[in-house]
Amino acid sequence: MPIRLEDYTSIVGTYVIEELRLLAEKLAGKTIQTINSTAVGGGVAEILHRLVPLLSELGVQIRWDVIRGGTAFFEATKSFHNSLQGEAGQLSEDIFKVFLETTEQNLRLIEFYGDIIFVHDPQPIALVKERYKGHAHWVWRCHIDLSNPQAQVWDFLRPFVEQYDAAVFSSANFAQPLKVKQYLIAPSIDPLSDKNKELTQEFIRDFLEKYQIDPKRPIITQISRFDHFKDPIGVIKAFRQVRPNFDCQLVLAGGEATDDPEGAQVLQEVQAEAGKDKDIHLLLLPPTADLEINALQRGSTIIIQKSLREGFGLTVTEALWKGKPVIASAVGGITLQIKHNLTGILVHSIEGTAYAIKNLLTNPEYARKLGENGREHVRQHYLLTRHLKDYLLLFLAIDRGTDGIVYL
Amino acid sequence: MHLFELTGRKARNLKELVKHLREVDDSVIFNHTHNFLIRHHYLTPQPPSAFTHWVKESLKEEWLGEQLEGINTIEFTSLKDLREKTLSTIESYIKKNRRYRIAPEGEEFFFLRSLEFVFPTPYLATNIYEFVEALRVISPNSLYFHFFTARLRLGRGTNDFSHWIETSLGEKELADRIAQLDPYMYTLEELREVLIAMLEAEIDRVLRRKR
Question: Which residues contact A216 (CB under 8 A, 6 or more apart)?
Fold first, then answer.
């Protein structure tokens, strides 16, 4: 059964759904074309699979197109992605050539229509060349952190961005100074997806027992791929400072790093650091194990996200949504989600993490209150329905071209 | 309902905060003195304005933070005056202390403009009974618009509810009592409850008088 808007009513309240319907009515007669680089896999496709049907249900005329490209093109855009996120090193001229050639092919293949053309991420960015042939408004949605881009790639892409009517970023500190209007729209999680939906206690217990995790003792968990930026070693060190005085367990869960040599190396380091400690569980879960990740988060007492660098940090959003007290580093989008001591605890070091764990284990009422506030914070700001509302507002703002107060 | 626009301006210290505070438009000032209300309307106690929060949490300037917290927003009927008061509070602190603590990387103050979208909802009241029933079900966004946006951003001088109760129902005393509330001390849901209680008490009083 496809998910319908009314399925969210019991989670977000009637007024949220009512307001979405009222906003959608204001877009009557407008057509939106959304374009990205893949129909399956990756966060952008995942969110579009949810948002596009809901926008259609609301009566918004929206169509989703996907660009085509060969291996060389996607290798080129992968290099762009890494460079834009700060990876050093010059790229060869061939990479830019492949990118422009594939863009030209897509310009011939894609039928452009619609009043607003909504383009996601760098892969289809240069399609904006087409804008001069029609009257549509063009909006570029950037899902990645551009705070520290490598100059060569950014110098190449910026002229394309500045041909759009507006750009949209997930966090203020991910943006770059640009000549066009820039909007802020945070990502979201879907409370009805396998990763976030409610689970039975029996399912959670079965999962924990399958992995020999004791459901009767406190469980401290970090869910992240094995990557130095996620600092799994730091998490183990913090746990070691706690364990002598508190009977608890640590779970580090992440994807199997078969195609990522660096990930495999980090995993080895983590395994060496964990040694034969029976209270440290290393779980290798495939990326598709959404229900299991959900069960692990719900079965945990405390969730940690001790990243040294982070994008928006949707794993934090997921943990907060499950009402768990979260201890996380004050980096990237985490600071938007966690207001220190209100919706979670922000930390800056191994010692700070250890202290926060001890504090939460000693004060379950405080932990409960943080979890409750965190869940409410996500309900208000980081669920799919808020994302849907922001997109409707964005389309209205672009269409009407107004500032300040917009009377609809 | 709001959509946030980036202004491209950010401050790392008090000097930069003052510079931008002077130059940004009123939509930015309104956003950062009111955004906490809508973002954290379910939390108690109500966190302060974004300027105060940043000064205390990112610059660790506790004393100045308390001075900014002391600015009583309800006393202001124009954003111009609120901006000036905020500026003069920060500037006199800078003069006295002559130091500029730098916010850690990633914790700079990013100036955002809020676009506020206003449209009719299905709720309509023609008397106090219908009004209190509508108040129970309208969204927090409606409450926010009529209480905060109308008074300060649109410069109507008072909230829409007091205005309507006085001009359409002729209940000046009730209108004044509502206008005298300090809504910044409540979460939006608490404010809703306080208003409902005031209106119900008024309805009771009228009914008793009729009997």
Answer: none
